[in-house]
Structures are given as C-alpha cells and as structure tokens.
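Q: How do we represent a protein-ligand complex in a form that can be generated token by token?
A: Start from the inputs.
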Amino acid sequence: MSAPAETPERTAFYAKIDKQNLTPLWTVLGALITPEPRSACVPFVWRFDEIRAAMIEAGGLITAKEAERRVLILENPGLRGQSKITTSLYAGVQLVLPHEVAPAHRHSQSALRFVLEGSGAHTSVDGERTEMQVGDFVITPSGAWHDHGNHTDKPMFWLDGLDIPLIQFLDASFLEHGSADEQTITRPLGDAPARFGANMLPVDYHPAKMTSPIFNYPYARSREALETMRRSQEWDPCHGLKMRYINPANGAHAMPTIGAFLQLLPKGFATARYRSTDATVFSVVEGHGISHVGDTTISWGPKDTFVVPSWKPVTHEASEDAVLFSFSDRPVHEKLGIWREDRGNA
Ligand code: GTQ
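Then emit the structure tokens for the protein with 2,5-dihydroxybenzoic acid bound:
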C-alpha cells in the first residue's frame, strides 16, 4: 500500500498543521506499521584477527583506567554512529592488559561477556570475583557493581554484549562510579557456583533480582553437556543441538533483557532455513563454516562475530564440528508476547 497522493490542498494543510506539531498519519502509516519487520540492521561479520590487531593498537593509545572500559564497538554497517550491533543491542570487544584494572562502576544496563582469548583474568560482581577462561559466559546484572582486572601476564579479550540501545530507548540509564578502582571482595571464589550452580538452592532463597545469581557459566561444563548430548543423535533441523543459558532459580533466561545460547553443529551439518524476530549476535567458539543470512553469505571461524538481523532467513553449514555462542533480545520479545519464529518447513 502506497501513501495517498499529494494534492496542493493536502500539501498546504500539512504545512499549516506542521506549525502546531501535528502530522498526518496517512503519509507515514506504511513505514510505521509494516507487514513484517524491516530492519536497518544488516548481516555482517567481524574477523577476530582484524579486531585483535586494532585492539592491540588501542592498548598502546589508552589505558583501561583512563578509558574506563577499553572497548572497540562493533557497529552494524546499517546503524553507523549509533553504537549498536542490532537495533536493541550493543556489542564491543574489550581488552584488559596484564596488571590493568577497569574501574568499578554500576549501571542499569545489563551486560554479558563472552571470553575470546586469555586465561585467568577476572571480573568482580557485587563483591565476588570470578576468573575467566575462553568460552566462559559471564554476566553483570543491572545495578551490580563490577570491575575487571588482569593479574596474568597475557592480554585478555572478550566480547561484551549490553542492552545499551534498549535502555537508551526507554530513557532509563543510571550510572555510578565506585569509590575505589576495585571493589571490596566479600565472598570467596566459587561462592555463587556452590550456592546456585550445583542443582540446589539455599533452602530459603528468594530471588532479589530478575537476573541469574550465577554470573559465570564456564565453557568446560557447557561444552561437555553438548558433547554428551550429541551421542543421542537428536538433531534439530534448524539448530543442530542448541541450549539456552538459564537462571537456575526459575528457568528463565539468565538476564531479563538478553538471552544467550550455545549450539553444536557437527561436521557437514546444514541447518534448515530459519528466521525469528530477535536479531541475533553470534560468536564462533570452534570450527569453520558459512551462514547464508538473507542474500548475504558469511564465512566464519573461531572468535569471529556475526550478526543476523530480525526476521532475516538464516542457514548455517559447518565444514567441521562447530560450536556457536549467540545472544539476542529474545527475552524482551517473549515478555511482550511478540516473539515469532518461522521454521520454514522444518
Ligand atoms: O565492562 O562494564 O563494552 O560498562 C560497555 C560499557 C563494557 C563494562 C562495555 C560497560 C562495559
């Protein structure tokens, strides 16, 4: 449906009411309410070796402390200048060099980290530290104090995913800086996984937050789960073997605004055409392959990041055993009752 034709009388009327901050719906309705999602977000891949080289250069230009967070934002080519990887989500690659600290702060935005390179650097969340390994999925809840540090002798790189654009859209951003660079540690290493990650909960535990009390989901455990499950040879045509990271207290997504997933595609597996309303960011953990996203073909390998916009049909083909981490705003769609998927004929 095209907009009604312009006539001299209509044009004059639009100009007159414009001064009253009024505008006719019928000229914009087709762009406002579309038959299906029409996103400005485009399919794209960032290669880790290129990001890494730029990050090392950034490491020579600014310290983590001066930058607060030394991050290069992965900006979607269709959304340049907006600090967005999808319409609702932000992603960046963060570098913490040996003996650096990224100082303590807290904000209303929820954050995830997915570790790309390095071993043993830490993040502290509300008084508890966790040491990070490649493939670990680490979260900082909305409102939680967090600082990052690296006591190892190697640089540490991770992918950050935050709901910055969503919180910006809602005009709900709050930020506070800590009184010291590093927050006081009040709980021993491993406390949260013991309390909440052993298929038990403290008997009188009542969740105080919508975010999972687990803040590190170690790759070793998640990977082992996939490896054990593959023996059953029960493959989903669209996803291979795909798992969802959960809040163990209620089975919901680990965070209220961002869902995260880990999937295994065995060598030679080609997924069936799939689309969903939640634009999704993928981080390749293991293996090489290609994905067709709409009309775009993306080839990928370990540590590359690629994006699938809302409602763009996607297929993945793994040329060797592949593991993909991904995150999206799916929990928001689900809570609003607007999440849709299309599994084609699968
Ligand atoms: O580590 O707290 O990539 O506050 C952007 C904003 C990371 C962080 C980002 C942040 C952080």
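The chain has one domain: 44-342. Residues 246 and 252 are 6 Å apart (CA to CA).
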